[in-house]
Amino acid sequence: MAKQFMKGNDAIIVGALAAGCRAYYGYPITPASEIAHAAALHFPALGGVFIQAESEVSAINMVYGTAGMGIRTMTASSSPGFSLKQEGLSYAAGAELPCVVVNIVRGGPGLGNIAPEQGDYFQITKGGGHGNYRLIALAPNGAQEMCDLTRKAFDLADKYRNPACIMADGITGQMMEVVDIPVPEPIPFDHSSWAADGTAATRKNLVSSIVLEPEELEEHNLKLDAKYREIVENEVLYEEYRTDDADLVVVAYGVVSRIVYSTVDQARAEGLKVGLLRPITLWPYPEKALSALAERVPAFLAVELSTGQMVEDLRLAVNGKAPVHFYGRCGGMVPGGEELLTEYRKILEGGRS
Amino acid sequence: MAVNLKKLTQNEDLLAGGHRACAGCTGSNILRQIMLTAGPDTVVGGATGCMEVVTTIFPYTAWKTSFIHSAFENSAATVSGVEAAFRSLKKHGDLPVEREKMNFIAFGGDGGTYDIGLQSLSGAMERGHNMLYVCYDNEAYMNTGIQRSSATPLGAHTSTAPAGSVKQGKEQHRKDLTKIMVAHNIPYVAQTTPFHWKDLATKVEKALSCDGPAFLNILMPCTVGWHFDTAIGIELSKEAVECNFWPLFEVENGIYKINQKPKDPSPVADWMQKQGRFKHLFKPGNEHILEASQKWVDEEWQKLLKLEASGAE
Q1: Residues 6 or more apart from A108 whose CB is under 8 A from it?
Q2: Which of A24, A271, A338, B35 is the most buried (most CB within 10 A)?
């Protein structure tokens, strides 16, 4: 594999190309624009499509159109732009169209700022748009994962005929790291049973999310729900670090997990038994793993770049078996190592409940 | 309705210094000139964009008038809400301070106007809100890293329509937004630049005094996105008119009037050569793009002359 030093945002396009994606639709927004710039450079040169839409709504609906033809496609944006895409995502989930949407989350609400935050967790993992649907949500914590998880997102989207979302932040998007460039091995997938690609074979297929009869719409929703349960059963990804004998398990994802890795080692050097569980899929959430840990771990701490969003899923997973603490920074503020160590000490020395 | 420079300069400058516009930005000139004419009884709405960002980084504001920020696509809708509320309060005698008239000005860049905000702009104009919409048009999304917009001219290099070995910048001509606004049959539509201060001030005065919506499209040379020396922005706005790339004209109740007719228009390529965004067009093999640009400018100018002539009959 070739190695290259690149920005996380560029690595997303490397992963998309390795997945065989050749259709990108985007709209300018900081701090996600590099993804569109990279797509504009590489997609047309490979015989693919790059279109800058006139709005986020158009970009997601171009994705909807291409996905409806059974072709791998993606778009990327940042929080305010991602908000505008919610209607399109709900329609894509309803019509069961596979696609990949990247959200390089920035500070909100409103225009907020362009600094890193994780305040879109609820929007991404709980719906965002209207109706009973879910996005498969992956949270990379470095440039290599920006590439690899984007590639994986295409496979998951196709496997379940559902939109998949990459949730990252301004730091992960902008920081440069060495990336192993994957050799493209697109997994062939058969879309002939549902896509409308203009051929005689697919003429009977209908791409739509309108189901007027209540009985039929309920059936459609139950079918989607069964699919979501299957995803929960099969696709959870997480990583554990030094949790075996931990007295405190910190749960953090994305860029925050990078800080927690180092502070776990620092805490251990002080004699504090701290471990980390890092959700890689945010939905489905590593509920079983956390529930199992809660049988023996005396305390948990969620660290997020928000005022407390993922901590709610952690509390549901732990289900009262151990205290769940929360430490969050927001608005673009990122916790420093000493700041987190102080929290660990407080919890483990019983200074806080 | 004659604009008097002496009087204008005595008016209060309503955009305070200390804002964060780039060195050589022509946008702050545009805002100041508009506000000198509009005066303090003005509510300003600004869509997300460079001029909004540089003048209103919370908790600071460079505006000495009321300023309301909205999402990228909503400046015209937001100001519609402000203006409708004002009219309602006035009608019911509920205004906190009795006022005969207020000015309502909505600002948007070309991305927020030609592209994502076109729907809300069109709605506001059609409903007939008493507002002036100003598009400060620097011909690309400069605030997010110089992406192409539908205002970007043919051949310009942008980060999403790059010039390289395969393509030579943007492959389409710019959209004629000013004429789209004329098609709304609103009382006043005009184009101008920050070099033509008297033309600009006159047009703002006309726009604010007409009964109903008005639209101004103002060319705003951008040192960052167009790649030129910070000293020549105003000069480039003058030359854009002299080569007929950006004609000064106004449409008052449907009647076209060209405000400046260059006797001997300079070649568009002379204007383009001063801008880094067109640099690649001067390499051998790209002459046809320069020719296409000139042809387009000539054809658009002829169309404009005809439109003016048809109104004069």
Answers
A1: A79, A80, A117, A119, A120
A2: A24
In chain A, the residue whose alpha carbon lies closest to the alpha carbon of B164 is A41
CB A249 within 8 A of CB A308: no
Average pLDDT, chain B: 96
Q: Tell me which architecture the domain covering A238-348 has in CATH.
A: 3-Layer(aba) Sandwich (3.40)
Task: Quote the distance between the C-alpha of residue B297 and its chain's center.
Answer: 19
The answer to whether B267 touches B243, Cβ cutoff 8 Å, is yes
User: Distance between CA atoms of A53 and A58, rounded to whole angstroms?
Assistant: 6
Residue A229: both structure tokens together: 């349960």
CA dist., res. A107 & res. A115, Å (int):
6
- Under DSSP, the state recorded for B57 is -
Confidence (pLDDT) at B1 = 59
In whole angstroms, give the CA distance from residue A77 to residue A100: 11
Chain B CB contacts of A41 under 8 Å are 162, 164
Q: Where in chain A is the domain with CATH 3.40.50.970?
A: 3-234
> How many C-beta atoms lie closer than 10 Å to residue B45's C-beta?
27
Distance, CA of A293 to CA of B77 (rounded, Å): 52
Whole-angstrom distance, CA of residue B38 vs CA of residue B257: 23
pLDDT at A352 over 70: no
Q: How confident is the model at residue B152 (pLDDT cuts 50, 70, 90)?
A: very high
Put simply, whether B143 touches A (Cβ < 8 Å) is yes
Q: How far apart are the first and last CA of chain B?
A: 24
Q: Which two tokens stand for residue A88?
A: 């399109």
What are A284-312's pLDDT values in tens digits? 999 999 999 999 999 999 999 999 999 99
Residues of A in contact with B145 (CB under 8 A): 28, 30, 33-34, 37
Nearest-neighbour CA in chain A from B47: distance (Å): 10
Q: Where in chain A is the domain with CATH 3.40.50.920?
A: 238-348
The beta-carbon neighbor of A54 closest among B69, B150, B162 is B150
Q: How many contacts does A have with B, using Cβ atoms within 8 A?
A: 56
Confidence at residue A351, expressed as pLDDT on a 0 to 100 scale = 45
Contacts of A128 (CB under 8 A, 6+ apart): A82, A83, A86, A89, A90, A135
Beta strands A2-7 and A176-181, pairing class: antiparallel
CB neighbour class for B58 (10 Å; exposed up to 12, middle 13-18, buried from 19): exposed
Kindly list the distances between the CA atom of residue B159 and the CA atoms of A213, B255, B277, in Å, as whole numbers in the listed order: 47, 39, 10
ipTM over 0.85: yes
Instruction: Give which of B61, B48, B49, B190 is closest to B133, Cα–Cα.
Output: B190
Token digits for B106?
A: 């909505």
Domain range A3-234, CATH architecture: 3-Layer(aba) Sandwich (3.40)
